[in-house]
Amino acid sequence: MKTLVLSFLAIGFALQISAQDAPNPEEAQNVKMPELVLVFTKTTGYRHASIEKGMKTLRELGRKNGFVALQTDSGTDFNPQNLGNYRLVVFLSTTEEVLDDAQQKAFEGYIKNGGSYLGIHAAADTEYDWPWYGKLVGGYFESHPEQQEAKIDVVDTSHPSTTHLKDVWMHFDEWYNFKQLNPDVSVLMRLDETSYKGGKNGTNHPIAWYHEYDGGRAFYTGLGHTDAAYDDPDFRQHLLGAIEWCLKRK
């Protein structure tokens, strides 16, 4: 992974330079390197078919917005030296137990040193025996009904991930019911359980939230089960806003 990181940095720098018209040395010194985002896609339980589409989407967003998304399925990349290369770690529909004790400790250290975390969909179906992670992600998966359209109440449109949305967003996806919800998160969107079948969290059913946690930033969205979700401009902008907040751009 170290060689891969260095290669992407070199390519990113070259692309930044080539995009300018013959910059002089002073201008070249001011060229910003793309920020690196590690996308973790390891699964030891159910593996979502949409992981591939989600990864493609993150790469596309990165090319247009100054970051590089690098994918790994290996927990061995969770060590202090490697994690130090990244401004953000994304758990893209990971499932069940994905990190050993040493890797968990390294990730905790990364967050405590100011790193950021973004969990997408099944990131909440991950590491049930790691209480620190449960607080980080903000809640654990409990169950889900069949995929269907539901009404999302956007309760906070001031966050970069929701500024583009209206107060109500109708969206088709797989809707998680949650357990062990962290009461200290700031909720951005809630599901209206009267708009679909199978909800179990009642009138307070958060589906996207953020918080500052143990020295770093953490964001979770429950959307993203289907391939089609990643073609939805509103969902893509939701992800981009979450990433930009995690990267501390906003």
UniProtKB/TrEMBL annotation:
Q: Which regions span the lipid bilayer?
A: none
What Gene3D superfamilies does the entry give?
A: 3.40.50.880
Q: Report the leader peptide range.
A: 1-19
Q: According to the lineage, what is the superkingdom? A: Bacteria
Keyword annotations: Signal
Annotated ThuA-like domain ranges read 37-246
Q: What is this protein called?
A: ThuA domain-containing protein
- Species of origin: Flagellimonas olearia
Lineage summary: Bacteria, Pseudomonadati, Bacteroidota, Flavobacteriia, Flavobacteriales
